[in-house]
Design goal:
The complex is a heterodimer of chains A (331) and B (188). Chain A is mainly beta. Chain A contains 3 helices and 13 strands, in the order E-H-E-E-E-E-E-H-E-E-E-E-H-E-E-E. In chain A, strands 1, 2, 3, 4, 5, 6, 7, 8, 9, 10, 11, 12 and 13 form a 13-stranded antiparallel sheet that branches. In chain A, helix 1 packs across helix 3. The longest helix of chain A has 23 residues. Chain B has a 5-stranded mixed β-barrel. In chain B, strands 5-6 form a two-stranded antiparallel ribbon.
């Protein structure tokens, strides 16, 4: 089982009020209200998935992107996650079929803090903040077609809570703050439930002592709001990503403190779809990761390796570096 | 009008084909087994491979402080008695009594062979007293998993100079028991 913890921060560019026309707060037409609701719904869904899913990178990201034709934000987004997915126990035969199987479990707990400083003539200097916490558990099975190729269908449920707070620094919002709060555009919180269905394909190549793992992960999410403090805010949407990963794990042939040093890393390219893509305002998220670890397998409980890792994450709207402890377990 | 498939649709098609491709490229999965004739010429692959093993749970059958020997057996396996020499670093031997449950960590040395009909052929064929067989080998993480005649398996972390690349399932292993290097009494 592999459970990875990468404390650090990630980043994405978010804007909320940036999407609202200035007139929206004084006189909202039904069309505008609908647009606001949709935009917020996409954002909440995207933030919940980004904060609560173990398949996307955590870390701290920064963006100064332009998100609407008239406004841009200076955004930082920090995501701290603890979680992962792993296969439990030895591979067992599946009846009389020439297929092996293992139980697979997965879980994650994540916290996300997105702070957006709005730059626009009317809302200049306002700060819009989203805080999301999410927790999810699930599982499935990994089916081994041979010693190299396997696939793992999984289901997971994820509970999320996103809260919004707004600091009005602009004269316009200082004047309209109470009204915006009253109509539920700011200062709200929403609880969501996300169903995650995924299929992991994995192919392992062993070359001398090096292990190369190729994997593909089509993943689908459906999110519904359970409770909202604002009548304007509800979530009901579909998202997904398709990521491809190449991981290389290389023993270095050197011992440190009685354990062999290993190095390696991975390159992951994730295509984002649905509300995850529109909510984060980007179609793709890439990550390159490097690590230096010590081999503890069969020496310390279920620890496979322990060391440090660094990731660089980039997309069309964001970039950021994250680093921290790199730990993997095998159960 | 000609329609071009959207990139996600193409990617999904490729992914859906992957299992079929994977199945087609290689054979089927089979559970690991030690009851196979290993490939290669009969030979001694390597002798004197040091390993440490932890035996738990074990029950003390008898203890002799004078000769520093300990006889333990595994509950549920009447024929599993093993006599160990207790190393000089163990000071708690006096406290151990028959019937105690203990966790025993021992040293051992392994010799790994490729045999034919249980023998090393040559001018004077040599019979080898096989104590276990190789079940699986992981050269990357230096893991050697053995299967004993009673069906139990044990995985050892071996040193980097062990020729794991030359070993495979079915290789014969002679186990030379060493001495107890750690002894921990558990609740009776």
């Amino acid at each position: 089982m592999r459970i990875s913890h990468q404390p650090g921060r990630s980043a994405l560019a978010l804007t909320l009020m940036g999407l609202l026309p200035a007139s929206a707060l004084s006189q909202i037409t039904p069309d505008q209200a609908n647009q606001i609701r949709n935009t917020l719904s996409e954002r909440i869904e995207a933030l919940t998935i980004l904060g609560g899913d173990f398949g996307l990178a955590g870390g701290t990201f920064r963006s100064t992107g332009r998100f609407t034709s008239s406004q841009s934000t200076d955004s930082t987004l920090g995501v701290t996650k603890l979680g992962g997915a792993g296969d439990i126990g030895d591979i067992k035969p599946l009846g009389s079929l020439p297929i092996g199987w293992q139980l697979r479990v997965q879980g994650n707990i994540g916290f996300l803090d997105a702070t957006n400083t709005v730059h626009s003539p009317l809302l200049e200097g306002d700060i819009n903040e989203f805080k999301t916490s999410a927790i999810g558990f699930g599982g499935g099975a990994r089916f081994w077609m041979n010693d190299q190729f396997s696939m793992a269908p999984t289901l997971m449920a994820m509970y999320g809570r996103t809260a919004n707070s707004y600091t009005a620094n602009s004269p316009f919002m200082q004047m309209n703050f109470d009204e915006a709060t009253r109509v539920g555009l700011i200062g709200w919180s929403v609880d969501t439930l996300t169903l995650r269905a995924a299929l992991n394909f994995q192919y392992i190549v062993k070359w001398k002592r090096t292990v190369i793992t190729l994997s593909a992960d089509p993943t689908y999410f459906h999110t519904d709001s359970l409770h909202s403090t604002s009548t304007q805010i509800s979530v009901n949407g579909d998202s997904g990503y398709l990521s491809g990963t190449v991981d290389v794990d290389v023993p270095m042939g050197l011992d440190l403190f009685g354990h062999e040093l290993r190095t390696g890393g991975y390159l992951r390219i994730s295509e984002l779809y649905g509300n995850l893509s529109s909510g984060l305002q980007m179609p793709r998220m890439n990550e390159i990761h490097g690590r230096v670890v010590l081999d503890f397998l069969n020496q310390l409980w279920k620890v496979q390796w322990l060391g440090i890792g660094v990731s660089y994450v980039w997309g069309s709207n964001i970039n950021g570096v994250t680093g921290g402890i790199d730990a993997t377990f095998r159960f | 009008m000609r329609r071009t498939p959207r990139p996600p649709a193409i990617a999904i098609r490729i992914l859906l084909c992957a299992p079929v491709l994977g199945l087609g490229l290689t054979g089927c999965w089979t559970p690991p087994t030690a009851d196979v004739q290993p490939s290669g010429e009969p030979r001694l692959i390597q002798a004197g491979i040091p390993v440490t093993a932890r035996r738990e749970p074990a029950v003390v059958q008898s203890v002799d402080s004078a000769t520093r020997t300990l006889v333990v057996w595994t509950p549920g396996e009447p024929q599993s008695s093993v006599t160990y020499k207790v190393g000089p670093t163990i000071s708690s031997l006096q406290e151990i009594e028959a019937g105690d449950k203990v966790e025993v960590t021992t040293t051992a040395q392994l010799s790994v062979y490729v045999l034919r009909d249980g023998r090393l052929p040559g001018a004077t064929p040599e019979t080898v007293d096989v104590g276990a067989r190789v079940l699986s080998v992981d050269p990357s993480y230096r893991l050697l998993t053995l299967q004993y005649p009673n069906g139990q398996t044990e995985t050892y972390k071996v040193k980097r100079d062990v020729k794991l690349q030359e070993m495979s399932a079915g290789d014969a292993v002679v186990v030379h028991e060493g001495e107890v290097i750690a002894l921990k009494r558990k609740r009776r």
